[in-house]
């Protein structure tokens, strides 16, 4: 219990982001529930720098995947590109599980849509991760109209979408 309290104190103090990130990671092995709640709070409140938040997302994803999915859906437009990279990495690492986890297809769609809207500078920052994501989910992106046509508004008629794709080719 003392070790857990020391880890919590280190994370909450935020005096040293590297030590806080290590403590949060260590905490997930001692108390997954507390680590998940703390990671979600860090993300929702924007505590620490973007690298610390990216690490918090990784902890959240590893201990509370459904909460991580909810966070992606709700906050994807308001996170820094470094946190987005962490989201892409976590989901891509689990790409082989997509057939066993139907919610993951929705998350792939959300992340793909978000990635399409990045500026050139942001794309450059996460290019390798984005390439890995697109390559890992290429079959799902190719087969699933929800993902393929994600840059079109939800109620866009299919004929307009096909016309737009034909013009791009």
Written overview of the protein:
The chain contains 12 helices and no strands. With 169 residues, the chain is mostly helical. It has 2 domains: 1-63, no CATH class; 65-169, no CATH class. It starts with a helix and ends with a helix.
Concise summary:
With 169 residues, the protein is an all-alpha fold.
Topology, element by element:
Layout: H1 2-13, H2 17-30, H3 32-45, H4 50-63, H5 65-75, H6 81-93, H7 102-116, H8 120-125, H9 127-136, H10 138-143, H11 145-148, H12 158-168
Descriptive key words:
169 residues; globular; mainly alpha
Q: How many domain units?
A: 2
Could you give the distance between the termini? Answer: 61 Å
In DSSP terms (H or I, runs of 4 or more residues), the helix count works out at 12
Number of β-strand runs: 0
Order of helices and strands: HHHHHHHHHHHH
SS content category: mainly alpha
Shape descriptor reads globular
Q: Estimate the strand proportion.
A: under 5%
């Amino acid at each position: 219990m003392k070790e857990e309290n020391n880890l919590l104190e280190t994370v909450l103090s935020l005096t040293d982001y590297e030590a806080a990130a290590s403590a949060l990671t260590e905490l997930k092995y001692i108390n997954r529930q507390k680590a998940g709640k703390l990671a979600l709070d860090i993300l929702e409140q924007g505590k620490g720098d973007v690298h610390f938040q990216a690490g918090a997302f990784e902890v959240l994803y590893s201990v509370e995947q459904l909460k991580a999915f909810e966070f992606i859906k709700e906050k994807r437009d308001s996170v820094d590109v470094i946190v987005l990279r962490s989201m892409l990495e976590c989901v891509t690492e689990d790409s082989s599980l997509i057939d066993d986890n139907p919610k993951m297809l929705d998350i792939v769609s959300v992340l793909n849509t978000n990635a399409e809207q990045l500026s050139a500078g942001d794309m450059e920052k996460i290019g390798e991760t984005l390439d890995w994501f697109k390559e890992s989910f290429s079959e799902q992106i190719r087969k699933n109209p929800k993902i393929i046509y994600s840059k079109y508004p939800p109620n866009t008629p299919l004929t307009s979408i096909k016309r737009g794709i034909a013009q791009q080719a």
